[in-house]
């Protein structure tokens, strides 16, 4: 371990341009130190059951929290599976595990049950970790901690630099992690991602405690750890980029048919759907409703590089949509549970619009006072739902119950209830 790493473990919160304001005045700014190599070097990639068993034993025998990260191949492969898992724990060092060669890591997950997992932007990695049997019972999310503490930049590199004073290597986050063998520079980058994660966690815990927000953070972390897996998205084809241009139901049917055809091909070939056919091409075909392959080939996204067989499969999808009966066509607009879009409130319910305007202003002011993003103080959807259908009797008890009913954590209920009680009493102009 270098002197720099010794310093990182014990240093107080630094201010190198990205930390929240210090009540005691700003401290001297120190030049950040490049972090170029993992302290024990780059560990070998675990790719067989024997090596995995050794890692499980080592991490089970380790102490303190465990830093966890995962690398996916977004934009290259179908789905969001993990292609590398990185861990670090005191007494066990760093491990890099290939979940393609070792697809079942449930024994490792079981060995770390009850241990606090430290992740950065946990909700991004938890789905792919769950797929391979790794589910934390306790966690600390350093990105969310940074948001609650008021850091303006909460990416891992920015947080490590502003809190600990080290510069992480950049440039490999968006590479194709399904590549085998993984190049050494990528492995170095991956190991460094967990190198200081526990140090960052410790410093952020102290900062949250200083600001009186540590219990708030713990409630947020518990909510993430206990959340069930997300439900499959209904009508995912409706999220095609550029859908706002598509108005007619027949055109919507073309988008749906092309999207579903693309998805089947992408899944079969294990490639990102965008590499099969771009969203812009799907929308272009939906708007044009081409009559034949020749007309389709003239559209943007279906150019000269696309073979006849490919063009025919896309045209067949268009033709299937064109052949549907009126009853089979999708409806324009997705059924939305809950209140209508806020832009429609003034016409539909002026009193509700007034409540929402007052609530937004109050929440914004409170978030600024607490030095955190509004969406972390309370979700905009929760505010909208309570303003659209407020309790019959507006008081602190009924508003608190309404917030809790929409999933707000106790700290959020405590902070936001007075603001909403005032806002829900607002009258329409």
Description:
- The protein has 20 helices and 8 strands.
- Strands 2-5-4-3-6-7 form a 6-stranded mixed beta sheet, with helices on both faces. A two-stranded parallel sheet has the order 1-8.
- 49% of the residues lie in helices and 9% in strands.
- It is of the alpha/beta class and 429 residues long.
Structure keywords:
alpha/beta, two-stranded parallel sheet, 429 residues, single chain
SSE order: HEEHEEEHEHEHHEHHHHHHHHHHHHHH
Give the C-alpha Rg.
26 Å
Distance between the termini: 66 Å
Label the structural class: alpha/beta
General shape: flat
Mean pLDDT figure: 92
Number of strands: 8
Spatial order of the strands forming the largest sheet:
2-5-4-3-6-7
- The helix content, as a percent range, equals 40-55%
Count of individual helical segments: 20
Q: Estimate the strand proportion.
A: 5-15%
Low-confidence stretches: 1-18
Biggest β-sheet: count, sense, barrel? 6 strands, mixed
